[in-house]
Design a protein that fits this description.
alpha+beta, UDP-n-acetylglucosamine1-carboxyvinyl-transferase, Chain, 4-stranded mixed beta sheet
Length: 178
C-alpha cells in the first residue's frame, strides 16, 4: 500500500534547535577517544543501551575513570595509555570487542577480551594480525574471541587491511595510533 502526503513549504527561513538521538557507534568511538586523550572529557547525549554499557564497563576494568549521569559521561583520559587489565567482557557488542582488543594493547597489564557466544564466533584475525604487525602481543584460538592481550610495545608503521574487512578494525587501529 502506497500513501503520500504533501510537505508544507516554509514561508521563510527555518530557525530551530534539533536534538538528534545519540548513536551507540558514535558514543563508543567518543568514549575510547576520551579514554585515550589527555585530561577530562565530557560527552553529552551518550546513547544508552547494552553496547554503551559494555564499553564503559570495559574501560573501567582498564583503569579508566568514567562517571555517568543520565546521558552525560565524564572520562579522565589516560594520555594514550590504560592502566588496568583483567577480563573485558564485550557482551554482544562487536564494536566494543574490536575497540577493546586494540586499546588493551596500550595497557600495562594482561587483558582478556571476551563476549557472548555469538560474538565469540565472529572472525577478528585481520585485526589481530594488524595489531601484531605493530608490536602487540596477542593470543587467540582461531582469530576469534577470547583474545589475550599482553603488554607489548607498539612500534607504529604501515598496516594493510583487506578492503572487505570491518570498518571497526580500521577505527580501532586509528584510535590507538600516536
Amino acid at each position: 500500500m502506497e500513501s503520500s502526503a504533501p510537505l508544507p513549504t516554509a514561508a521563510g527561513p527555518v530557525r530551530a534547535t534539533v536534538t538528534v538521538p545519540g548513536s551507540k557507534s558514535i558514543a563508543n568511538r567518543a568514549l575510547v577517544c576520551a579514554a585515550l586523550a589527555r585530561g577530562t572529557s565530557t560527552l553529552r547525549n551518550v546513547a544508552p543501551g547494552e553496547d554503551t554499557a559494555a564499553m564503559i564497563d570495559c574501560l573501567l576494568a582498564l583503569g579508566v575513570r568514567v562517571s555517568t549521569s543520565g546521558d552525560v559521561a565524564t572520562i579522565e583520559g589516560g594520555d594514550g595509555r590504560v592502566r588496568g587489565g583483567g577480563v573485558l567482557d564485550a557482551r554482544l557488542a562487536g564494536t566494543t570487542s574490536r575497540f577493546m582488543t586494540a586499546v588493551a594493547a596500550l595497557g600495562d597489564a594482561t587483558s582478556t577480551v571476551t563476549g557472548g557466544e555469538a560474538l565469540r564466533r565472529r572472525p577478528m584475525s585481520d585485526l589481530h594480525d594488524a595489531l601484531r604487525s605493530l608490536g602487540a602481543n596477542l593470543r587467540s584460538d582461531g582469530g576469534c574471541l577470547p583474545v589475550e592481550v599482553a603488554r607489548g610495545e607498539l612500534s607504529g608503521g604501515v598496516v594493510r587491511l583487506r578492503g572487505d574487512v570491518s570498518s571497526q578494525f580500521v577505527s580501532a587501529l586509528m584510535m590507538i595510533g600516536p
